[in-house]
Amino acid sequence: MLPRGGRDADVRWFDIPACYVFHAVNAYDDGPRIVLDVIAHPRMFDRSPLVPNEGSPGLQRWVVDLAGGRVTQEPLDDRAVEFPRIDERRTGRPHRFGYAVAYDDDGYPTGTLVKHDLVAGSTLTHDLGPGVNLGEVVLVPRAADAGEDDGVLLGLAYDRARGRSTFVVLDAAGLEPVASVELPVRVPTGFHGNWLPD
């Protein structure tokens, strides 16, 4: 752990069970603790160099106790997910909602989007249908002062049977479809994206 504004001599090491993290959901200070929500893979690149299929990646909360010098790890959901996103206005601050794409047993994205309510401890899902691979979504707030899930989610969904992608727009609160745009070609699943307001 490197404190903000710290130097190499300020790095502190904390032991945790071995795992692999591609993507962090968010991290924030909580008094003398640091809270990290991450997607943790139990193994990576041990048996397969191509895809993350060596155990289900899952949403975990890691709490770093700076005073006690230890980390506690708590699974927040038992389904396999990846490509997590939050309302970026909450980056580095406590957040309530997180969005992620459900993964299958072979390590590939499905067409199911999962919304995690980390305060209520509940989830909501929306499935785009069989044979669809959903990429990472990005939240666009309805207005600068909108609530944390008051807006839309933008993402790309690839239909394997048709060999084409669709730009999808979902309501961030209830995950209901709002709009979609058929694209004439395939856009590779997994590309990261961001929204920049004008």
TrEMBL record:
Protein name: Dioxygenase
Keywords, alphabetical: Dioxygenase, Iron, Metal-binding, Oxidoreductase
Family: Belongs to the carotenoid oxygenase family.
UniProt source species: Nostocoides vanveenii
Top enzyme category: oxidoreductase
The record's free-text note on cofactor binding: Binds 1 Fe(2+) ion per subunit.
PANTHER family in UniProt: BETA-CAROTENE DIOXYGENASE, CAROTENOID 9,10(9',10')-CLEAVAGE DIOXYGENASE 1
Enzyme Commission number(s): 1.13.11.-
Cofactor(s) it depends on: Fe(2+)
Coiled-coil regions listed in the entry: none
Domain of life of the source: Bacteria
